Amino acid sequence: MPPRKTPKRYLSRPEVAERIGVKPDTLNRYTLPEPDAQIGARLVGWLPETIDRWNAARPSRLAPFATPPDSD
Fold first, then answer.
1. Facing residues of 72 across strands?
2. 3-state SS of the chain: helix, strand, coil percent to 5?
3. Deepest in the core among 16, 28, 51, 69, taking most CB within 10 A?
């Protein structure tokens, strides 16, 4: 008998917010990546790795104010 595949687990908007450390309402300010799944008429989901890649590539909120380290 072939091994059973583990079903994919998609993150909901509240789970995405929790994963990146923001409140769910804050997600409305972000342009999220295209969802990996359309689960219903209005319900979408993302794979954890999709959100992790997107979050890692997001510009830091502090980047415009960051100062380079001293070169002394």
1. none
2. 40, 10, 55
3. 16
Measured CA distances, 58 to 6, 40, 41, 55, 67 (Å) = 30, 28, 28, 5, 19
Residue with tokens 């769910």: 24
Where in the sequence is the domain holding 26, given as residue range(s)? Answer: 13-57
For residue 24, being part of any structural domain is answered with yes
d(CA 56, CA 65): 19
pLDDT surpasses 80 at 68: no
Question: Is residue 3 in some structural domain?
Answer: no
Q: How does residue 52 score in pLDDT terms, banded at 50, 70 and 90?
A: very high
